[in-house]
Write a structure and sequence with these properties.
By secondary structure, this protein is mostly helical. It has one domain: 434 Repressor (Amino-terminal Domain), CATH 1.10.260. The protein is built from four helices and three strands, in the order ααααβββ. Strands 2-1-3 form a three-stranded antiparallel beta sheet, with no helix packed on it. β1 and β2 form a beta hairpin. α2 packs across α3. The longest helix is centred in the middle third of the chain and has 13 residues. The radius of gyration is 12 Å and the shape is globular. InterPro entries: Cro/C1-type_HTH (IPR001387), Lambda_DNA-bd_dom_sf (IPR010982). Pfam families: HTH_3 (PF01381). It comes from Agrobacterium tumefaciens. This is HTH cro/C1-type domain-containing protein.
């Protein structure tokens, strides 16, 4: 699982369309991120990060980690979801 897909599905628990709205991009852009054909810009990552922090989102008991943009945590594909 790509890091951005982990963030969308495990941390935010959102569809590509709703995650795109949060990031201020088109759904097709999120699809390209997840396919590895495009990387989020710094502004887009900042919007995602701000939304996660503002919402106090966690994954597996951990608060938001900026490294999640670059490295998918171990166990991320095990079906664990975020917790508010």
């Amino acid at each position: 699982m790509k890091p951005i897909e982990f963030i969308r599905t495990k941390v935010f628990n959102q569809t590509q369309a709703s995650f795109a709205k949060l990031a201020g991009v088109a759904q097709g852009t999120v699809s390209k991120w997840e396919a590895g054909n495009l990387a989020p810009s710094q502004d887009e990552m900042q919007r995602i990060r701000s939304a996660a922090i503002r919402s106090a989102l966690q994954w597996n008991g951990e608060n938001w980690q900026d490294e999640w943009f670059f490295v998918t945590p171990k166990g991320a594909s095990a079906g664990k979801k975020m917790s508010p």
